[in-house]
Amino acid sequence: MEPNPFTNTQEPATPADLVAVEQKYQFTLPTDYKAHLLQHNGGRPARRTFIERQPSGREVKRKISDFYSVGHGKNTLERSVELLYDQLHPDLVPFGDETGGDVFVLSIGPQDYGAVYYIAHEFYTPPEYDYDEETDESTPPAPLDYGSGVHFLAPSFTAFLDGLVSSTPA
C-alpha cells in the first residue's frame, strides 16, 4: 500500500514518553499504535476517510480529522484520556477525533485488544458501572459492553490505517 503522509504532526514521541503514558494510566497500548506514534506523533493523514461496513450492508464514511499526539501539542492522548475518563468504558482509549466531536478509540480490553471503534457522540450512552451500597464500590461494565453509539471499524490499528481512503463526494 502507498504511504499515507501525515501533516501537522508534533515532534515524534519517544519510547520513554510511551512508557510514561502507560504507567500513568495503567494500560498497555497496542504495539502497532506505539510504532505509529514513534513515527507520526499526532497530525492529519492525507487519506483520512474510513468506510464502515455496517451489518445491514450499508457503508458509512467516518472521517478522522486529527490523531492525538503524546506529550506534545494541544490535542494529546493524555488530555483526551483525562477528559473522557468517566464517560468511556475503561477498556477504550481515544486516539483521534472527527471535526463534529465524534471520537476514534482503541480497545485495550482482553477480548478485542487493539480493535478500533468509532463513537458517535450524539447517539452515545456510556456503559453503566454497578454500584454496591454495602461496600461503597463500583464494578466496571462487562467487557465489550461499550454503550450505544459505538461502532466497530477494524480489528487492529494497522487495519484501520490500511483502510483509510481519500474522501470522495457523496
Q: Strands, helices and their partners?
A:
Layout lengths: L5 E2 L7 H11 L5 H9 L4 E2 L3 E5 L5 E5 L2 E2 L9 H8 L7 E6 L5 E5 L8 E4 L10 E3 L4 E3 L10 E5 L2 H6 L1 E2 L5
Antiparallel strand pairs: 1-2, 3-4, 3-12, 5-6, 6-7, 7-8, 8-11, 9-10
Global Rg: 16 Å
The helicity comes to: 10-25%
- State the strand order across the main sheet: 5-6-7-8-11
Average pLDDT level: 88
Give the helix tally. Answer: 4
- Gross geometry: globular
Overall structural class, as computed from helix and strand content, comes to alpha+beta
| Strand count | 12
* Terminal residue distance: 24 Å
Strand count, sense and barrel status of the largest sheet are:
5 strands, antiparallel
One letter per element, helices H and strands E, the order comes to EHHEEEEHEEEEEEHE
What keyword list fits this structure?
alpha+beta; 170 residues; five-stranded antiparallel beta sheet; single chain; 4 helices
Report on this model:
The chain has 170 residues and is of the alpha+beta class. The chain has 4 helices and 12 strands. It has helices at 15-25, 31-39, 77-84, 157-162, and strands at 6-7, 44-45, 49-53, 59-63, 66-67, 92-97, 103-107, 116-119, 130-132, 137-139, 150-154, 164-165. Strands 5-6-7-8-11 form a 5-stranded antiparallel sheet. A 3-stranded antiparallel sheet has the order 4-3-12. It starts with 5 loop residues before the first strand and ends in a 5-residue tail after the last strand.
